[in-house]
Amino acid sequence: RQDGAPLPHIEEKGAFFEVEVLEVQHYTETLFSFRTARPQSFRFRAGEFVMIGLEGEKKPVLRAYSIASPTWDEALEFYSIKVPDGALTSRLRNIAPGDRILLGKKPTGTLVSEALRPGRRLYLFSTGTGAAPFASLIREPDIYERFDEVILTHTCRTLAELAYTEQLVETVRQDPLVGEFANGKLVYFNSVTREEGPRMGRITDLIDTGKLFEMLSREPLDPSRDRAMVCGSFEMLNDLKHLLEARGFEEGSNARPGDFVVEKAFSGEGI
Ligand code: FAD
Ligand code: A2P
């Protein structure tokens, strides 16, 4: 913010804040991200989600959203789907700088580093908008102090849908502060499933066949060394959970840290 520029709008409204939209970026017909003002009292742990929404005719329309920005950022960032007839996103897709959205006061969630036992290598497995919580985590210097290596995987149907994480990883690498921590520790792997691309296949298949580890030049998953966080559709979570459990990984929670944690990127079948 330039000196002298007016402060962005932030107002308390009961259990919510009303915050100003600062920036919007569209990637595809179905994906966009936006940044909003952040109330000073709004604290969260990297990887958590919060309710956000818009005022409605009778009552507000609210949905769960992962916070994609790191905890040190003075703004908040979200990465969003555009569901054609979605109650929230058919409107949210049209937001512009200067508009206002509702922001819940109580972030929560399981994709937090405190829910994992100490380990050496952290895998962040994501599909679709499931990359959002990891966009926060890979920008936290602390994650690189906890783990020797952080491997983010993002799988989408098409190459265009990888744009958000591709840009993000590039920004992290160039960031004067986080780039230094991430240097030599952050590994990014992406693949597509419904279009020709340099790397193809569902992450579950790539793990099962061992191709992921061949491509990364890393040893296969091992609970004595590796930890994992998983975010994607209900089916993706289930399949990965079984895969991890079959290799001896134990699921963790805030109350009882384990070798891996999962969180749904959305409810329902997906679009
Ligand atoms: P809804 O009526 O909520 O959904 C309609 C249908 O669209 C769903 O049944 C489902 O089939 C499909 N759908 C909804 N969300 C998605 C999605 N993200 N990807 C693919 N298909 C989807 N959404 C985000 O875009 N970004 C996030 O960071 C995010 N974090 C979430 C965290 C949690 C813990 C949960 C439970 C959901 C999260 N969602 C996220 C989903 C979000 O809450 C809404 O469902 C989404 O914004 C669409 O809202 P809607 O009212 O337009 O449509
Ligand atoms: P696919 O194209 O083979 O269905 P979605 O948008 O449906 O959530 O999908 C996002 C990505 O996640 C797609 O590449 C999709 O692959 C993949 N995917 C969907 N279901 C699973 C699953 N059960 N396990 C692993 N990957 C999945």
Automatic annotation (TrEMBL):
Superkingdom as given in the UniProt entry: Bacteria
CDD domains hit by this protein: FNR1 (cd06195)
Enzyme Commission (EC) number: 1.18.1.2
Cofactor: FAD
Annotated catalysed reactions: 2 reduced [2Fe-2S]-[ferredoxin] + NADP(+) + H(+) = 2 oxidized [2Fe-2S]-[ferredoxin] + NADPH
Keywords in alphabetical order: FAD, Flavoprotein, NADP, Nucleotide-binding, Oxidoreductase
Leading EC class: oxidoreductase
GO BP terms in the entry: cellular response to oxidative stress; heme catabolic process
GO molecular function terms listed in the Swiss-Prot or TrEMBL record: ferredoxin-NADP+ reductase activity; nucleotide binding
Family designation: Belongs to the ferredoxin--NADP reductase type 1 family.
Name used for this protein in its record: ferredoxin--NADP(+) reductase
